[in-house]
Amino acid sequence: MRFVEEIVVDEFLPTVRSLLAGALRERGLTQSEVANVLGISQSAVSKYAHGDVTVNERVATDDRVEALVEELADGLAAGDVRPVRALIEIEVLIRELEQGGDLLAQLHEEAVPELADHGASFRVHDPESDLRTSERVLSSLRRGLRLLENASGFAGLIPAVGSNLVACTPDADDIDDVAGVPGRIFDVKGKATVPADPEFGVSEHVATVLLAARRHDVDAAAAINIRYDPKLLAELTERGHVTAEFDEADDVPSSVGAALEDEPDATVLYQTGGMGIEPLIYLLGPDAETIADTTRSLL
């Protein structure tokens, strides 16, 4: 009797760890850094690097395994993907490959031929888990933030109250479903400064605008606030964006909703300020990277 988990432990994981260790080394990480990212010892990394670990060629040459290793290696090396997301993505792939007829199921059936008569599925995890979804949002947000940090002149678009780039889960219902930068992004001596790693539930202001827009059928999952300037609005309009003005002195969700009833295709919302209220522009988009690209195009 041999369980599919034994196939995973004895053949799949050593192969994936070996591929991932090699890919991370190719991207410039030291053995110590690779060991830290993968949660293994430096001696284990050395064994992987010198081919002292048996690799299952069928696993190593599977298109999905190769693609995931490259994606995770890029993200881990750049800092966009945390080890916990890498763990989740590998776990999800394992569950997909365990389904009847797929790679791990085939290897299991070869080890236990009696299983071939049943065609049973071994799927036990949900690939669309909340944790996986949240980690994907955070990864996208980190990539968008890095684009902005490296954009020359972005600090000039940050308003006095600070900017925040936010992104939400597909079924976002409240602020806890929206991730942003704790403390917002500020201009510090002409340089955009992101004070902390993004988290969920830390942006009230920009998150409220994004959620209000989504509740009025705007197809957006990310947003950013930048300083108000009529020239910026004109440039955005020239590039095909639809703009809509709302009154932030009133109830924001209601005011945003009223503005979108007049301009349902709006991807840019703005308010011109008032007593104690700084005028701002809000850009809406499908993801954090797209918002960052749109923002950089204004520089």
From TrEMBL:
Signal peptide: none annotated. PROSITE patterns: HTH_CROC1. SMART domains: HTH_XRE. InterPro entries: Aldolase_II/adducin_N_sf (IPR036409), Cro/C1-type_HTH (IPR001387), Lambda_DNA-bd_dom_sf (IPR010982), ThiN (IPR019293). Gene3D superfamilies: Class II aldolase/adducin N-terminal domain, lambda repressor-like DNA-binding domains. Residues 20-48 form the HTH cro/C1-type domain. Pfam families: HTH_3 (PF01381), ThiN (PF10120). It comes from the Archaea. This is Thiamine-phosphate synthase family protein. It comes from Halosolutus amylolyticus.
